[in-house]
Amino acid sequence: MITRSFIHATAWALIFGALVHAQQPTLVRELGIKYMRDSEEYATLARQVYRAAGEAVTHAATQRRQGEWAVVLDVDETSLDNSTYQLERAAYGLPYDDASWGAWVARREAPAVPGLIGFLDVVRRSGGHVAWITNRNASLADPTRDNLKAVGVWTDDDRLCPQESAQSPKATRRREVMTGTGDCSWRGTPMVIVAFIGDQLADFPTAAELIPDTGTDAAFGFTCFLVPNSMYGRWTTQVTRVRTGQP
Prior knowledge:
Elements: H1 4-18, H2 24-38, H3 40-61, E1 69-73, H4 83-91, H5 98-107, H6 116-125, E2 129-137, H7 141-150, E3 159-163, H8 170-179, E4 192-198, E5 224-226
Parallel strand pairs: 1-2, 1-4, 2-3, 4-5
Helix pairs in contact: 1-4, 2-3, 2-4, 3-6
């Protein structure tokens, strides 16, 4: 019987054998996958982010009534680790596509990102709600919920808020949580969002949303918490860092 460990080991062998003839961008991609799968530095960074977020939530909870506040998390590479999908695609030099992604999500095999479980324990003990705001297509909601259940982080009080259409940006779903209206809400109960967790800057509120203590670089480490992701993002195809001369 061929085990999954054998398959993954074979995948790594295929990848690094191919790297002998690969171009530099391909090498960078594969090292980014390996960093997230194999390095203790990545796991430590992720736990550090979630530990800081937990401390912020613990402080915020002392100033709010139970049941009237929430945290918002992205799913992919923030809560669920999809590096196996990336590894399997990379082994054959294949890019992301919707069909293979849907098949991966249907497997319900993504593990939790390090630090997530402990963070959510803090949130729930402190009386907070959890909203998962993801740009996974709404057709993937059921297997996504199943995967969150499988790693022990879903409760029936949670809200899973996938992307229903291109006209449903994350900002709209955040507003639903805050106003207590719409599918991504605890209807009739407006929520104060005390922490946002993501792995891309697009996972966080912009200044235009007028959410207190968000929309600036100064919000990170206080209300906004960025989990590392070395596998994909806008940075892979463009320069996203803004250099202002400030340290």
